[in-house]
Design brief:
globular; alpha+beta; Arc Repressor Mutant, subunit A; three-stranded antiparallel β-sheet
């Protein structure tokens, strides 16, 4: 118990120091860029990592880098974070961001410190072909983004499917996007890249608006989700997003809500990304999403099973197979499914 108390105390101190600055323009950009490369990390661990290594972009445990064909350089100091584990779980399992309150009450889980390393602390293993990811950087001030998007029409269809609202293009629209009674209205004369960003922003608004206290908070969260989702789609919107977000942030007003705000951004982004990936996988294997919604994220499957939802293993040649044990999910190499009602009812909060 004493170790847990020490862990919580040291973590709280790091958070207190980091939260005060994370929403300044450059710090917030760094935070969102890190989360987009590490979407399953809790926002608390993301801040703790950036406090220890401000230039961090992508982190793994030692064995995780070995699996990716990289090895930690000699004399590199690891980054300490806190992860919630089952009492008999492997200590080298990378941390995720599950719903913790129920688990802690049941006494089956506890915190442990684990060590991770940033990609800058590693090097390729001889003979392995690896490629370092690019991180988003600001590129000056512009009014709107320019650029084309590969698979643009399919992506628009998938975004509409995820939101379950029609996307309506308006030639005479004055705003880039807005939510109308008949769907999401999008200005027609924008570039493909700015259109995708705007749609992602508006979808996030649909999901987040009930929990926001005011318009500015909603705009910060929606644009942050749009940035993360687009970056995961290999689309860089930093030129727009990081001149847009600071316009709405007021430190005196919003700082007390910062923890909830960052947590919601992460969970909403992960739900969005899981949903788009699931639609692409379903299309690839010819799976109908009419009754069950397919998704690929194994950690999401494990979390949903732990929360009492009916989770299925998807076998293209056998259909859906209902499972009741975490081990069955861990051993499955294909996609998973839950009922459409459960998936969209869960929203980003359970993903």
């Amino acid at each position: 118990m004493q170790d847990n108390e020490s862990t919580v105390k040291s973590t709280s101190q790091m958070l207190e120091e980091g939260l005060a600055e994370v929403l300044e323009a450059t710090h917030f950009q760094r935070f969102l860029s890190f989360i987009s490369n590490n979407p399953t990390y809790s926002y608390r661990n993301a801040i703790i990592i950036l406090q220890q290594c401000p230039h961090a972009t992508r982190t793994r445990v030692f064995k995780g880098w070995v699996k990716e064909g990289r090895v930690v350089k000699a004399d590199e100091k690891g980054l300490k974070i806190n992860a919630l584990f089952e009492k008999d779980e492997d200590k080298d399992t990378p941390p995720s961001a599950p719903s913790k309150k129920k688990r802690e009450r049941e006494g089956d889980y506890k915190f442990r410190k684990i060590t991770v390393f940033d990609i800058s602390q590693t090097k390729p293993i001889d003979g392995c072909d690896t490629q370092e990811p690019e991180s988003a950087t600001p590129a000056g001030n512009i009014v709107r983004l320019k650029g084309r998007v590969a698979g643009y029409n399919t992506l628009l269809h998938d975004m509409s499917e995820v939101c379950r609202l029609p996307i309506i293009f308006k030639s005479a629209a004055t705003a880039d996007g807005r939510i109308g009674p008949d769907g999401i209205h999008i200005r027609k004369d924008m570039s493909q890249l700015h259109t995708v960003r705007t749609i992602a922003n508006q979808i996030a608004r649909v999901w987040l608006r009930a929990g926001c206290l005011h318009f500015a908070q909603l705009e910060i969260m929606a644009e942050s989700v749009a940035f993360i989702v687009c970056k995961c789609l290999e689309l860089d919107t930093s030129e727009f997003s990081f001149q847009h977000i600071p316009r709405y942030y007021n430190a005196q007003r919003d700082r007390e809500m910062l923890g909830k705000l960052l947590d919601s951004i992460q969970k909403t982004s992960l739900f969005f990304i899981d949903s788009l990936d699931g639609l692409r996988t379903a299309r690839r294997i010819g799976y109908s999403n009419m009754e069950y919604f397919l998704f690929d994220n194994k950690k999401t499957a494990i979390r949903l099973l732990g929360q009492g939802y009916r989770v299925y293993l998807v076998h293209p040649d056998q259909g859906n197979i209902f499972v009741t044990k975490k081990k069955e999910l861990e051993q499955h190499e294909g996609p998973f499914a839950v009922s459409r009602m459960d998936w969209f009812g869960l929203g980003r909060l359970s993903a």
